[in-house]
Amino acid sequence: MKFSRTLSYSSGVLRFLDQKRLPQAVVTLKLRRWQTVVSAIQALQIRGAPAIGIAGAFGVALAARQILGKTAKPASIAAFLKASKIIREARPTAVNLMWAVDHQLTALGKAGLLIPGAAAPCIEFLEKNAQAILEEDLSIGMKLAEVGHRLIQDGDGVLTHCNAGGLATAGMGSALSVLYRAKEAGRKFTVFVDETRPLLQGARLTTWELKRWGIPHILICDNMAAMLMKQGRITKAITGADRIARNGDAANKIGTYGVAVLAHHHRIPFFIAAPYSTFDAGTLTGADIPIEERSAEEVLSFHGVPSAPKGTKVYNPAFDVVPADLIRALITERGLIEAPNDVKVRAFLAAASRAAV
Ligand code: MRU
After folding, report:
1. How far does CA 4 lie from the centroid of its chain?
2. For 21, which DSSP code?
């Protein structure tokens, strides 16, 4: 399947499409410092669970370059570990970020390379390991597409929320990769794209991707989905996820829970596509998933223009949680987890961890 890479890295430079500038401008940013990786993640210039995980992994490599220098000393090793912790905590909900940073440090520890002395082997190791995470994300995107595309039939109206496409990953996507593969397989369907207030990832990013793929799509405001479901125009819903708890509850962009409730009411199957790095064995249920709260400014304005009186109180959670019993199936690289629950998710995680990078 054709796709373009969203992130790439060479010789101490992380390159990525600035998602704040899309769709008005297609700008590739170059980052050389771990601190700017953290701020790009926090500003949503790099966003989407798998993409921030990959960026975090390269951020750790950049931190090693910057902090360890040519010769690692005990103090610089401590500073490097502190920087890695800051990268790990750049955003709290998507577990892919924590997974990727932990994966870097665990692999480094196992290789015995974080020791005083020449730093080059350590830096090279972290760069290669981050590249492996990126390549694995691309191949998982292909597998999600293969597993999920059979769910899409001619005549479907597929609702999606936020952006779970190439931009949110290394380049293939999760929920949208399913639709790209379905299109490639000749299926004729229409995608309904929730604009996804307050930051409009659906309007700005998902429509941009679907247009490039030549997939018919219709942009709707978030509050229109119910009516379209009642009219029978939406026949399936599919999103990505930021963290899936051990019982199958799944956090995703704010508004996804509403989509799942509406789908349930209208007897429309609701699917979530996600790689194993989005599953969190350490989180028992959705209630344990930390939900990021973002600034009031995001709600008080629309495209930089004030849309409410100054000083209006705001609540701005960036994610919500879909309970497992509203999910028809989780689409994973190892197949569908239908009617997900604790037992099925644990079995998936056990198989995935045996095969992990
Ligand atoms: O705040 P964002 O834009 O990073 O939120 C992203 C989402 O909620 C996506 O749906 C999710 O990360 C899945 S990406 C494959």
Report:
1. 17
2. T
* Of 114, 106, 116, the residue nearest 57 (C-alpha): 106
Residue of 16, 161, 162 best suited for mutating to test ligand 1, as the one with most atoms within 8 Å of CB:
162
Overall average pLDDT of the 129-156 stretch = 98
Of 161, 180, 124, the C-alpha closest to 48 is: 161
3-state secondary structure of 218: strand
Q: How do residues 69-122 score in pLDDT, each as one tens digit?
A: 999 999 999 999 999 999 999 999 999 999 999 999 999 999 999 999 999 999
Q: Which of 101, 129, 103 is nearest to 38 (CA)?
A: 101
141 lines ligand 1 (CB under 6 A): no
Task: Give the Å distance between the CA of 302 and the centre of ligand 1.
Answer: 20
Q: Indicate the top mutation candidate among 46, 201, 272, 330 to test ligand 1's pocket, ranked by most ligand atoms within 8 A of CB.
A: 201
pTM to 2 decimal places: 0.96
Q: Tell me how far apart the alpha carbons of residues 74 and 55 are, in angstroms, rounded to a whole number.
A: 26
Torsional class of 265: left (φ above 0), alpha (ψ -120 to 50), beta (otherwise): alpha
The β-bridge relationship of strands 236-239 and 270-273 is parallel
Calculate how far, in angstroms, residue 62's C-alpha sits from the geometric centre of ligand 1: 24
Spatial distance between the Cα atoms of 159 and 284, rounded to a whole number of angstroms: 28
pLDDT, tens digit, 9 for 90 and up, residues 24-40:
999 999 999 999 999 99
- Which tens digits make up the pLDDT trace of 246-277? 999 999 999 999 999 999 999 999 999 999 99
In ligand 1, which atom is closest to the CA atom of 52?
4
Percentage, residues of the chain above pLDDT 70: 99
Determine whether the shortest distance from the Cβ of 72 to ligand 1 is under 6 A. Answer: no
Q: What are the structure tokens assigned to 284, written together?
A: 């028992």
